[in-house]
Amino acid sequence: MGMNDTPSSERVHIGFFGRRNAGKSSVLNAVTGQDLAVVSEVKGTTTDPVYKAMELLPLGPVMMIDTPGIDDEGELGGLRIKKSYQVLNKTDVAVLVVDGCQGMAYEDRALLGRIQEKHIPCVIACNKADMDGPAANHGDSGNQGESAGKPQEAYPQSLPVIMVSALTGQGMDQLKECLAGLGKRQESGRRIVGDLLEPLDFAVLVVPIDKAAPKGRLILPQQQTIRDILEAGAVSIVLKEDGLAKALPALGKKPRIVITDSQVFGSVAKDTPEDILLTSFSILFARYKGNLGPLVKGAAALKHIGAGDKILISEGCTHHRQCNDIGTVKLPGWIRQYTGVEPEFHFTSGTGFPDDLSGYSLIVHCGGCMLNEREMKYRMECAEDQGIPMTNYGILIAYTQGILKRSLEPFPEIASLLG
């Protein structure tokens, strides 16, 4: 897989934030050496977040995000500011671009507070260092200038502050090195399944043909799992669900693990001998993203669902709904069958995850393969903050079919959460 083929979810997301005309877009263009963002003397040129996948040396594959100004005005401006703040939910490294001729304003300070609340690594890029201004000296911006009638504030001492000029290129190499250092800290070192395998182990992947996937392609979690198996020096065997029973005795060697798509969990469990580990792509990716424990706990909340309780079923991507769609058709059916009651189902997809979750008794989320780790953690933290249990498709399916405990055998410390 080349740099340009790296999935969005696996890229370090670098967000550029700041007031209108601080030079966010110009600094982003200078860092990348490309005209990724529109630059204009007119305030508020960037009206929506702009995403661009690229390679940034010495860091590697990244997603660069240009955002609207955090000091925009009016009702429409307020919506743009909200969009900028929402970008924080999927930002791994933040760049706060400050107008070096004016220094930090209260809007900068407010955003910085939110960045620090979310524990996002951040660097302050003090732009227009080629120009004379009262804020051109690091840490000594004083109270020069005003924004919306409020005084400017000095740069915080706890964060790196780099004097840059988008016009002359001053400080750009230093900024890139800083971004690389902050981005490298985001690498978790976790594996999808490779840490469970020895070289030449067999890993059997049960992959139904997904009608929602483009013809001739495997969906992303399947591709990434195969890649991880290869990196472990093990052997991946990929087959459809109706071929598992015949294939296992024909392999000549007992597989170390069977990994299945959640939709066929029940039939695959019946065809997989008890002495072979069994799990699903959903469970593996929940562990990979660091969410498996809370999601397993969330599945147990299904025992307490009553008639009329609201359940949110949320997908991280958008695709054409099939007539037997898992999110809108199959999952509600399994939930009704397990609970024996009729809950009230609500559905969201893509970026449409609600801020207010207080009316829901349970959230069931997809595996989040198209969301980066920070976005998925944000959604889980929103649910946790509001006391709403949350699980994912695969874990809930295994739970409703009574095979979750078995499918967690590779992870005994997580299985113990079920009691």
Explain how this protein is built:
This protein is α/β, with parallel strands linked by helices and 419 residues long. It has helices at residues 24-32, 74-87, 106-117, 172-184, 220-231, 244-250, 265-271, 281-288, 292-299, 326-339, 373-385, 393-400, 404-407, 412-415, and strands spanning 12-18, 50-56, 60-66, 93-99, 122-127, 146-147, 150-151, 161-163, 202-206, 235-239, 257-260, 277-280, 310-315, 344-349, 362-365, 390-392. A 6-stranded mixed β-sheet has the order 2-3-1-4-5-8, with helices on both faces. It has a 4-stranded parallel β-sheet with strand order 10-9-11-12, sandwiched between helices. The protein has a 4-stranded parallel β-sheet with strand order 14-13-15-16, with helices on both faces. β2 (50-56) and β3 form a beta hairpin. One of its GO terms (molecular function) is GTP binding.
Can you give keywords for this protein?
419 residues, alpha/beta, 6-stranded mixed sheet, 32% helix
Structural class: alpha/beta
* Overall radius of gyration: 24 Å
The overall pLDDT, averaged over residues, is 84
Strand percent estimate: 15-25%
- What is the helix content? 25-40%
